[in-house]
Amino acid sequence: MDQRTCIQEPVISMLVGFSTSTAHVTKIFNINDIRAGDRNLNLKAIIVGGGVGGLTAAICLRLTGWDVHVYEKATKISETGAGIQISPNGIKILDEIGVLPLLEETLFEPDAIEIRNGLSGRQLINLPMGGYAQARWNARYVQIHRADLVNGLRSRLMHLAPSSITTNAEVISVMHSPLGGVVTFTSHPEQQANLVIGADGIRSVVRQKILGQDRPQFTGNMAWRTTIDIDKLGDLVPPPTGCIWTGKKKHAVTTRIRAGQMVNFVGIVEQPTWQEEGWLIKGCKEDALLDFKGWDPRITNLIENAVELNRWGLFERNPLAKWHVGHIALLGDAAHAMLPSMAQGAVQSIEDACVLASVLKSCPKNKISDQLGKYFRKRIARTSKVQRISKRNLRLFHKATALSQLTWYGPIWIAGKTIPTIVQGRLDWLYDAEFPLL
Ligand SMILES: Cc1cc2nc3c(=O)[nH]c(=O)nc-3n(C[C@H](O)[C@H](O)[C@H](O)COP(=O)(O)OP(=O)(O)OC[C@H]3O[C@@H](n4cnc5c(N)ncnc54)[C@H](O)[C@@H]3O)c2cc1C
Predict the structure, then answer these.
(1) Which of residues 291, 316, 341 is at a domain's end?
(2) How far apart are CA 334 and CA 328, in angstroms?
């Protein structure tokens, strides 16, 4: 822990940590580099899963000259209605790989990250972001609809490698082959490649096949999720920030998406078990209103006006001892699923993709496995730290008494008012990370 302050590590919500590195992210990809990397085109990578991690990995590998193919089990590449926050460390990579310009029209840049008391609405912490993030971390902090992010990634990949996505292709098994991997599907002929990446999410089939059966653990929390047009909310609109509303054994997060025209709501509530079959089910508005009874009217009004509310069970996995066997490796939630209380799951999958491509650039066939070990060693400490802090943040957000709030947020509030850079500096390790040159 940084000895210069008495701020508890997990306190600054989405973000905090203790390294004070201010290194800047180096240029990762020149978009024209693809020609330089074409020498690798005889190497083929199969990516299982067309979510944020899988699509970013395909783009990064393609930019370094790999022949890539993404297999996605859904009938089309899309995302359920929900918002996502992307911090500067993710934005810098999206910019470097040519995706950011495709997202511009739909982005929203919040004024600040705030913590408020969920019942009274009283502000406890305010960390300026709009304009500030660019100046300190060299990139914006943004909020976006997940569908818009996935569409941008898909368009970029289609531009670089026009027929590189197959949907309706559920992978059921993956096996090792000499210097490669073989993937089998429910309804497609098997495919082989020099490299197989399991970017197939928290319930990864690839992970299970290479590392054995282990079930994700229910964290004792479920999430309500909805998005709503801002003009349906009347005067009771949540602030134009990333706002964490804290409460006893629950918290909510409101953000803006679709260029500020929609509000995204996540309400996380402790519950001892998750018995439903799936982890995403339709929820009942009355239950959500009960969970947030007596809360700030900007929250209850939002729930009352929601057209549809989904319920998610929140699961996680412990850090792994390795992310690859032979030429088959994991990425994103398949490798390190985490709680959303640092808003980093997707961002970390973007970082994974960048580091993976950098270690595999110009890699001879017989060195792929060694390089996958290097990828793991470059990533494991950082992703494990984010997992750890996400878990502690969640416990912190669920502290509700005046005394506990004063104990936790008081020192930060004072530091933020007197020397704001102390608070912001504690995010440098995350937002100002340095990535390897390709
Ligand atoms: C409430 C909530 C809020 C969040 N907010 C944020 C945030 O603000 N910022 C952030 O960075 N992160 C956030 N996250 C985390 C983020 O959503 C995940 O970490 C991220 O989506 C992981 O991306 P992924 O590509 O690894 O996996 P996924 O998004 O799960 O994608 C996996 C893909 O693989 C496909 N697939 C699965 N199995 C197979 C198979 N057998 N064959 C073929 N395809 C398959 C799936 O259909 C899916 O398309 C949040 C999470 C939750 C629950």
Answers:
(1) 316
(2) 12
Maximum Cα–Cα distance for the chain, whole Å?
64
C-beta 152 within 6 A of ligand 1:
no
Both 358 and 332 in one domain: the answer is yes
- Say yes or no: 305 and 349 in one domain: no
Same structural domain, 302 and 394: no
Question: At which residue do the structure tokens 């990397």 appear?
Answer: 37
For residues 38 and 182, membership in a common domain is answered with yes
Q: Are residues 325 and 383 in the same domain?
A: yes
Nearest of 173, 233, 237, 229 to residue 205 by alpha carbon: 173
Same structural domain, 396 and 422: yes
Pocket test for ligand 1, best of 207, 256, 333, 383 (most atoms within 8 A of CB): 333
Atom of ligand 1 nearest to the CA of 170: 42
Which of 314, 309, 263, 275 is CA-nearest to residue 290? 309
Torsion region of 260: left, alpha or beta (phi above 0 gives left; psi -120 to 50 gives alpha): left
- Is the distance from the beta carbon of residue 306 to the nearest atom of ligand 1 less than 6 Å? no
Distance 122 CA to ligand 1 centre (A): 33
* Domain containing residue 171: 12-104+146-215+318-431
Distance of CA 3 from the midpoint of ligand 1 (Å): 36
Same domain, residue pair 58 and 159: yes
Cα of 50 vs centre of ligand 1, distance in Å, is: 9
Cβ(394) to ligand 1 under 6 A?
no
pLDDT per residue as tens, the chain (438 positions) = 333 222 233 334 343 332 323 333 344 444 444 544 445 558 999 999 999 999 999 999 999 999 999 999 998 766 666 899 999 999 999 999 999 999 999 999 999 999 999 999 999 888 889 989 999 999 999 999 999 999 999 999 999 999 999 999 999 999 999 889 999 999 999 999 999 999 999 999 999 999 998 888 899 999 999 999 999 999 999 999 999 999 999 999 999 999 999 999 999 999 988 866 556 678 899 999 999 999 999 999 999 999 999 998 898 888 999 999 999 999 999 999 999 999 999 999 999 999 999 999 989 999 999 999 999 999 999 999 999 999 988 888 887 666 666 666 666 666 666 666 777 787 899 999 877 655
